[in-house]
Amino acid sequence: MLLKGKKKSAYVLIALFVTATAIFCGGWELLRQRYVSPTPNFVASHLMNPNQTLATYLKPSVSQHPDIAAGKEALLESMGLWMQYNLNQDKQTEFDKSFGVVQTYFTAPESYWYWKISPDGTSSVATNALGDDLRLLNVLLKAHDAWGGDAYLEEARRISDVLQRKAAVNGYMVDYHNFSDGSSASTLNLAYLDIQAFKRMNAYGLMDDASLQRYTALLENVPRDSVFYPQRYNVQTNRYESDNEVNLTEQLIAAIHVREAGDMPDKLLEFLKQHFVQDGRLAGRYDRASAKATVSYESPAVYGLAAILFMESDDSKWAGKMIAKMLEFRDHDPAYPGGYVFDGDTHAFDNLFPLLAEQQWKTDRRNR
Q1: By CB neighbour count within 10 A (0-12 exposed, 13-18 middle, 19+ buried), where does 216 fall?
Q2: pTM of structure
Q3: In this predicted structure, what is the pLDDT of residue 33?
Q4: Tell me: the pLDDT tens digits for 154-206?
Q5: How many domains does the chain have?
Q6: Measuring CA to CA, how many Å separate 233 from each of 42, 186, 238, 285, 309?
Q7: Domain coverage including residue 37
Q8: What is the CATH number of the domain that holds 248?
C-alpha cells in the first residue's frame, strides 16, 4: 500500500533518522577504535629531558630536600610507567630507548637502580626505592614474555638478586636500602607489595616459593577494620602501621595489589563511590578516622588509579565515571595539548598514570 501526505513524510524522516543513527554509531565506534591519545606526544615533547630521561615537573626548579624530586630531576618511577605504556603499545623500539636510558643513567656501580637522578644524568643519591624497582622489574619480565631477548631477563635477574641480598631485612625486601652506609628501612609500604611482580619473579625462578608466600600473606592478613589500609608493615616488630592521614594514591595502589592477590577491596571501593557521589570529586588525602578530606586538591593520577582499580574489580560503570572525571583535567592549558597542566606546571605521574588508565580502558572496551 502506498503512503500518502504527512504519513509518508513521517516514515521517511524516521527511516532517515534510523539510517543516520546507525552511520553515526558505526562511525563513532570506528573513531573510538582509531582514537590516539594526545598525552604520549605531550610527554615526549614537554617532559623529556635532552638525554631522554623524563622530567618530574614541567617547570624547572631546585630541590629543597634530598628526598623530594623537583623540576627536571628524573624518577625511576616515571621510566617504569613510560616503559609500561610502550610495552602495552608493542613499541619495542621506544621501549628499548628507555631501557638504554635506565642502564646508562639509573644504574649505580653497585648494580642497584637510583630512585632519582639529576637532569644531566648524574646522581647524588645512594638509595633505591623498592616500589619503583619492582614495577620496572615486572615490566622487563613482561617485555621478555612479549619479545624474547636475554637482555630484559638478565637485567631483571640482576636487580632481583641485589634487592633480595642487599635490600632485605628479616626475610623481607624493605622500602629502601642505602648502599653508601649500609642502612635499610625497617618497613615495607603496602603500596610496594607488588604481588604481580612477585608472582612473575617466582615463575622465572627469581624468587622462591616461601618468599612469595610471605609477601602474599602480608596482603591476605592485612587488617580490614578500617576503610583504609595500613600504610606499611614493620619487619622488625611484625606489625602493620598506620598514619592519621592517608594518601589516596598510595591507598589505590595498595588496593590494586590486594585485588591482584585475589581479594576484593570492598570497603575502599564503596568509599570511592560514596564520596564521589556525595562530593562530586575525590581529594588527594583523607583523615583515617573520620574519612573526611584533609586537602582541597584533586589529582588526575588519583582518578586514573581509581579507574584501574574499578576495571580490575570488573566494574566498568564506575571505571567509566573515573575516566570521564580524569579527562576533565586534560587540555586546560592550550599551550600543552594532551597534558594535565595547571598554572604552567604538572607532575609526571599526573600524566603517566592517566595515560595507562586511558590505555587500559580502551583495551577493556574493545574486548567487551
Answers
A1: middle
A2: 0.91
A3: 56
A4: 999 999 999 999 999 999 999 999 999 999 999 999 999 999 999 999 999 99
A5: 1
A6: 38, 9, 7, 20, 22
A7: 24-367
A8: 1.50.10.10
